[in-house]
From TrEMBL:
<dbReference type="Pfam" id="PF20974">
    <property type="entry name" value="tRNA-synt_1c_C2"/>
</dbReference>
<dbReference type="InterPro" id="IPR022861">
    <property type="entry name" value="Gln_tRNA_ligase_bac"/>
</dbReference>
<feature type="binding site">
    <location>
        <position position="214"/>
    </location>
    <ligand>
        <name>L-glutamine</name>
    </ligand>
</feature>
<dbReference type="InterPro" id="IPR020056">
    <property type="entry name" value="Rbsml_bL25/Gln-tRNA_synth_N"/>
</dbReference>
<protein>
    <recommendedName>
        <fullName>Glutamine--tRNA ligase</fullName>
        <ecNumber>6.1.1.18</ecNumber>
    </recommendedName>
</protein>
<dbReference type="GO" id="GO:0005829">
    <property type="term" value="C:cytosol"/>
</dbReference>
<keyword id="KW-0030">Aminoacyl-tRNA synthetase</keyword>
<dbReference type="InterPro" id="IPR020061">
    <property type="entry name" value="Glu_tRNA_lig_a-bdl"/>
</dbReference>
<dbReference type="Pfam" id="PF03950">
    <property type="entry name" value="tRNA-synt_1c_C"/>
</dbReference>
<comment type="subunit">
    <text>Monomer.</text>
</comment>
<dbReference type="InterPro" id="IPR014729">
    <property type="entry name" value="Rossmann-like_a/b/a_fold"/>
</dbReference>
<dbReference type="InterPro" id="IPR000924">
    <property type="entry name" value="Glu/Gln-tRNA-synth"/>
</dbReference>
<dbReference type="InterPro" id="IPR050132">
    <property type="entry name" value="Gln/Glu-tRNA_Ligase"/>
</dbReference>
<feature type="short sequence motif" description="'HIGH' region">
    <location>
        <begin position="36"/>
        <end position="46"/>
    </location>
</feature>
<keyword id="KW-0067">ATP-binding</keyword>
<keyword id="KW-0963">Cytoplasm</keyword>
<dbReference type="InterPro" id="IPR020059">
    <property type="entry name" value="Glu/Gln-tRNA-synth_Ib_codon-bd"/>
</dbReference>
Length: 561
């Protein structure tokens, strides 16, 4: 079997296999981690990272840890921690051991900071934030040493301990690593490793008023957990020398290796947590789990499935080069999954009443229809058929050309899984709008050709007016109408699609859908794929969200026969 067949389009599988082949990694000894910051909900980019880290652990018989990078208590919440755990489990993964937190290692990190001070490799600096930027230099000019850089070890220890004990105000002092202010890598120009933050922490309470930086926390937390492969996105490539400097200058129990991959960028989407939070805070969407949001919680509520997201991440692959993935690839993944697995049903979204004049008023037939055209295991469903039914308003015209394949006055059409009808007359309101169509049916056409030999060219869906159930349908489209809403320095808010949500309150569904459990998926025949809303759906008030149209288009519901 070729390397491509084994590793596919994921170069990190090759990296791990090479480490095993070279004896650098024992079989089953791989340890990865997924380390989200608990300052917002996870988005589609995080889904790729989850699938990558947990997927590698699965493939090579290793472990994957879930560790929260909780170094900034001002922006972190328990609600985010709970949501992230649920997202990981919903995608089908389970972390090894307990949930871990960077804050679990705050005592160790503090001791490491003192170790650097005692080795003459860290110092307390009193430059303001603006002065620190000035001293840092630029990409073409070296930085300048802080005037506090040459403090003695004893003075730095005393100052750092005073910071720890709350003696100073926020922003007045920081602890910096003493590396090289002339380094061409700006990350090595004496980076800040501790700041004063007088904030209560969701895990450690009021124990600390100084908190370590991400760069200082990251590698040392990896080392404490025995991480073998620390996988990050490409923006951390320039941070790798700092990651390694800390590991080489601290008494850590092991030496993890950092590898970088290209983050997931999708058109018609923003994934910045700051921008997603702005959408929530400004009421553009109804919350982090709004079905228009690219968050995992939002996509779940929209009706995306774990299998489709995992398939999408596999299709995208793991590479070293940045690129933009077409939204159509994600839409294809969910459409393909639901086409194979979603039961069929009928829903009329803009109802027009049909009265079948030659059908007995008190008669009700219980017709049978397949749950899925290719899945015998999904069984049959029962469709009550009565004298009065609803069809889509767009499926009827008083007159039309030959391209219109639905119901036309004086012509025939077949009802899905039922009879052939002939439209004979209409009832209109005072403005001339059709409010009711009178038809006749051919009782010999249930599953057969019409008795007169005419085969209707169109098939339309329907719901019994007396047995169908009223429901609410939310039709969702893409949240942004520009393929690059947050690029080019423009305000991404100006590209919000004003028609991203359409709420239909007068829809009619098959009676069986009232019993649908929340998060049940369906293909509404001729319309699209829908899901029973996980929060609002109930037997009393059925609510269905449109996941995706039947075909590769957006902005309109499919209504072709």
């Amino acid at each position: 079997m070729s390397e491509t067949e084994v590793h596919g389009n994921n170069f990190l599988r090759g990296v791990v296999q090479a480490d095993i082949d070279a004896g650098r990694l024992a079989e089953g000894a791989l340890v990865t981690r997924f380390p989200p910051e608990p300052n917002g909900f996870l988005h589609i980019g995080h889904a790729k990272s989850i699938c990558l880290n947990f997927g590698l652990a699965e493939q090579f018989g290793g472990q994957c840890h879930l560790r929260f990078d909780d170094t900034n208590p001002a922006k972190e919440e328990q609600a985010y921690i709970d949501a992230i755990q649920e997202d990981v489990r919903w995608l089908g993964y389970q972390w090894s051991g307990p949930v871990r937190y960077a804050s679990d290692y705050f005592d160790t990190l503090y001791n490491y900071a003192e170790h650097l001070i005692q080795a003459g490799k860290a110092y307390v600096c009193e430059l303001s934030a603006e002065e620190t930027r000035e001293y840092r230099g630029t990409l073409t000019e070296p930085g300048r040493n802080s005037p506090y850089r040459d403090r003695s070890v004893d003075e730095n220890l005393a100052e750092f301990r005073a910071m720890r004990d709350g003696a100073y105000e926020e922003g007045s002092k920081v602890l910096r690593a003493k590396i090289d202010m002339a380094s061409p890598n700006l990350n090595l120009r004496d980076p800040v490793i501790y700041r004063i933050r007088k904030q209560s922490h969701h895990q450690t309470g009021d124990k600390w008023c100084i908190y370590p930086s991400y760069d200082f926390t990251h590698g040392q937390s990896d080392a404490q957990e025995g991480i073998t492969h620390s996988i990050c996105t490409l923006e951390f490539e320039d941070h790798r020398p700092l990651y390694e400097w800390f590991l080489n200058n601290l008494p850590v129990p092991c030496q993890p290796r950092q590898y970088e991959f290209a983050r997931l960028n999708i058109n018609y989407t923003v994934t910045s947590k700051r921008k997603l939070k702005a959408l929530v805070d400004e009421g553009v969407v109804a919350g982090w789990d709004d079905p228009r949001m690219p968050t995992i919680a939002g996509m779940r509520r929209r009706g995306f499935t774990p299998a489709s997201l995992r398939k999408f991440c596999e299709m995208v692959g793991v590479a070293r080069s940045e690129g933009i993935v077409d939204m159509a690839m994600l839409e294809h993944a969910i459409r393909d999954d639901l086409d194979k697995n979603a039961p069929r049903a009928m829903c009329v979204m803009d109802p027009l009443k049909l009265v079948i004049s030659n059908y007995p008023e008190d008669k009700v037939e219980h017709l049978s229809a397949p749950g899925h055209p290719n899945r015998d295991d999904l069984g049959e469903r029962t469709l009550p058929f009565s004298r009065e039914i609803y069809i889509e308003r767009d499926d009827f015209r008083e007159s039309a050309n030959k391209k219109f394949k639905r119901l036309v006055l004086g012509k025939k059409v077949r009802l899905r899984n039922a009879y052939v009808l002939l439209a004979e007359d209409v009832v209109t309101d005072a403005e001339g709008n059709v409010v009711e169509v009178h038809c006749s049916y051919d009782p010999g056409t249930l599953g057969e050709d019409p008795a007169d030999g005419v085969k209707p060219k169109g098939v339309i869906h329907w719901v019994s007016a007396s047995h169908g159930k009223k429901a609410k349908v939310r039709n969702y489209d893409r949240l942004f109408n520009h393929e690059a809403p947050d690029r080019g320095g423009e305000d991404f808010m100006q590209h919000v699609n004003p028609d991203s949500l359409e709420i239909l309150d007068n829809c009619w569904v098959e009676p069986g859908l009232v019993e649908a459990a929340p998060e049940s998926h369906y293909q509404f025949e001729r319309t699209g794929y829908f899901v029973a809303d996980r929060c609002d759906h109930s037997a009393d008030t059925p609510v269905f969200n449109r996941t995706i149209a039947l075909r590769d288009s957006w902005g309109k519901s499919e209504s072709q026969a």
